[in-house]
Amino acid sequence: MSIFFNSAYKGLEPYIPGEQPQDKQYVKLNTNESPFPPAPGVIAAVNDKEARDLRLYSDPELNPLKRQLAETFAVDSKNVFIGNGSDECLNYAFMAFGEDGFAFPDITYSFYKVIANLNQIKVDIKPLKKDFTINVEDYLGERDAEGTRPGIGKGVVIANPNAPTGIALKSGEIARICETNADHVVIVDEAYVDFAKEGTSAVELTKIYGNLLVIQTFSKSRSMAGARVGFAIGSEAIIRDLETLRNSSNPYNVSRISMKCAVEALKDKDYFNINCDRIRNNRRYTKETLEMMGFRILDSQANFLLVESDRISGPDLYRKLKDSGVLVRHFNDPRIANFNRITIGSKVEMDILIEKIRDIQKL
Ligand SMILES: *Cc1c(COP(=O)(O)O)cnc(C)c1O
After folding, report:
1. How far is CA 216 from the centre of its chain?
2. Can you tell me whether residue 244 is helix, strand or coil?
3. Per-residue pLDDT averaged across 229-233, rounded?
4. Out of 11, 169, 244, 323, which residue is the most buried by the measure of CB atoms under 10 Å away?
5. Model confidence at 24, in pLDDT bands (50, 70, 90)?
6. What is the pTM of this model?
């Protein structure tokens, strides 16, 4: 740290991203990327003309992509915010709506705590239940004499499906949290919702609850983690607040090429649906196979599985898999330290993973 660093930031603990090793080729199942390339239209969009046009700024209104998102999700453009990855949407949402603090689960996307600290926002950590499900009651406030619930007096952030558990709440439960906390913003981070059961997404509820902000990303189900595009859907008023912050810090926040790619990705619905189905099938196959090999696996609705075994510790399995060329994600949080999070890749990758685990179990 230099002597010049603003004292407000001296205690910051930055987010630790999953490893992106540049040294050797791994079967990379550690950061929930898609094993499939982006849609053909996306690849075609990255062409000579686009490269030449890089001399121009991108559209600060982000209009073509806003329109495409509005059409895809049957909302108005005014209900759409676009960020440089959903991480940026989350940061703006914390900045904008965090005055009274935010509540979120102990086991969830660890970036929430980081952006809360960055923006000096108080956090209220609500432990998941023993079975790693979210206790919806925690987000409703104590019942008063009439049995009415007053809400919890702060914002709420819920990843749905949650990460790294993969467990999803029903949209009815999200509705209850929004309804009870009408005086604060409820952020639902749907980074993995495209791999979940139909009806999990809360996007439709944004038409009912003006305090609901749903955030999604092109990084997982649309195979564009490197393009850095995320978006938020919510009432016109809260979207306008996010726009105020964006235009006060980085008005050209999404690159021309990334925007073009995102439009093309949305257009190709068949490619998207096929890939989501392939991930769901590979998830079922991997879960069934590992369960037969003695693993305990949470009921994931996402493109990863959180797995543990009595026969090998979490850190041990992580290390031995890495030594054999398969990278998965291990977390140090004591509640999940015996687990590993395994991204669902292609069938070939899943078979390599399974074979390596069989070899490790034989030792
Ligand atoms: C991957 C992920 C994101 C975000 O990713 P971006 O690449 O910034 O869009 C957001 N939330 C959760 C829970 C994630 O796992």
Report:
1. 7
2. helix
3. 98
4. 169
5. confident
6. 0.97
